[in-house]
Amino acid sequence: MVLIMSHTLTDAVHMCNWWLFRDYLSWLRETLEYVKDCGNANWIVKAHPHAEAYNCHQKDYDEIKRITHSLDNHNIRLLPADTNLKSLIGFADVILTVRGTVGLEFACFGIPCIVTAESAYSGFGFSLEPGTKGAYFQLLSKVSEIDKLNADQVRMAKVVAFIEFVLMGAETGFLSHKMPHIGNFDTNKLWWGELCRNIKSTTPMTDPFFDRLEKFLSADTEHLLKRNDLYEVKE
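Below the sequence we write its predicted structure tokens.
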């Protein structure tokens, strides 16, 4: 079973150094167009959990219906929106994503991922990163032959995941933790109201983000970390 992990189609579409496709929607469409004739696997599409918040005109279901409507039989299906990804770990053989963190998450369980753009986990040896569209579709044509990750690859994926999800980033007092700030910015007046109040009541010098940023700049490192003492850790 191959999981096609869709994206919020308008979110940060052109932020990477390299993409094989024009955007997330082009990737989804061209991937579905190709695999509709591939009987070597069951192709299961999972919509992004925040897709509805972005209110995109294009929907995953509509794309599947448009591409497969003339086929008597096909192996493409859309998972229910409330499907828990944890339930798929024991069934998924390969993950397809442009650059989603799901590729890193499933790699920690030995499941290989094919990415088509630069990601936070690119270049660490556990993801498949074709250099051209042709190479990408070639991988799809032989997807049933892709092996599970070996022990060294899984170990590396876990190291990268720990750095990405646990060590990196910094809290800020400006952004509310109570209100969602993904999508619907124009209508989410409660979130914007709390943000304005936080800005008025907090100064940069006392915000924890300022302290972390100052340490990050003085340490001359590549990544912003959650705790200042982490900058002192040596190899």
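The helical segments are 24-35, 60-68, 102-107, 133-141, 151-167, 189-201, 208-219.
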